[in-house]
Design a protein that fits this description.
This protein is of the alpha+beta class. The protein has nine helices and seven strands, in the order E-E-H-H-H-E-E-H-H-E-H-H-E-E-H-H. Helix 1 crosses helix 3. The chain starts with a strand and ends with a helix.
């Protein structure tokens, strides 16, 4: 079986093929990420490659990310939704939409406001969202759930045990966030608005 030498031993790669040194790890990771299509953690990638540590995969992913950025290729590697994902460069978005047809899904102002409240206050009940927005949001929450951006996160321990809502990994993926800590702070939001 072919593999990559790591610490004096060979690390097998699925499907065979000679791979030597750390440079052989980069195309293997690129292939796995391309095939996955969705964000994948370094731990899962390491398990798929057998006997390659997560730390080594993480370091290789950073190298791959830098290489893709420096080479001005059509793909970029981003850390999103707790994993890594290959994405097309946003410069090509219009051409991709024309190629694939259709229009990108857009969210209404009401949906964006509701989603913002859920993201920053989660877990949050519908009543709490409505109190902040000043209007009913039941149908909007249903739309966000249907689109996979919001999920039911349980029930609040109070009379009536209302449902609580939280964002999903799909939310992180759509908005390009590695995790919820990636949400902009109020100060950052004000600076963005000023620009």
């Amino acid at each position: 079986m072919s593999g990559e030498e790591e610490g004096g031993r060979l690390v097998p790669f699925p499907g065979g093929g000679a791979v030597e040194g750390d440079e052989g790890l980069l195309p293997a990771l690129e292939a796995l990420l391309f095939a996955a299509g969705a964000p994948v953690s370094a731990r899962v990638l390491a398990a798929a490659l057998e006997d390659v540590s997560s730390a080594r995969v993480e370091a290789a992913l950073e190298r791959l990310r830098r290489r893709l950025t420096a080479s001005s290729r059509a793909l970029e590697l981003v850390r999103v939704a707790g994993g890594w994902q290959l994405r097309t460069d946003p410069r090509f978005a219009d051409a991709i939409v024309r190629l694939l047809g259709g229009t990108p899904q857009r969210l209404s102002q009401a949906a964006l406001e509701t989603l913002s409240v859920v993201a920053y206050r989660q877990p949050v009940t519908r009543t709490e969202v409505e109190a902040l927005r000043g209007v009913g949001c039941g149908p909007v929450l249903r739309t966000l759930i249907d689109r996979g951006l919001v999920r039911v996160a349980g029930r609040k321990d109070e009379p009536g045990r209302p449902l609580q809502y939280a964002t999903t990994d799909r939310f992180l993926e759509v908005f390009g966030l590695p995790d919820l800590d990636g949400l902009p702070t109020l100060r950052e939001r004000e600076e963005i608005d000023e620009d």
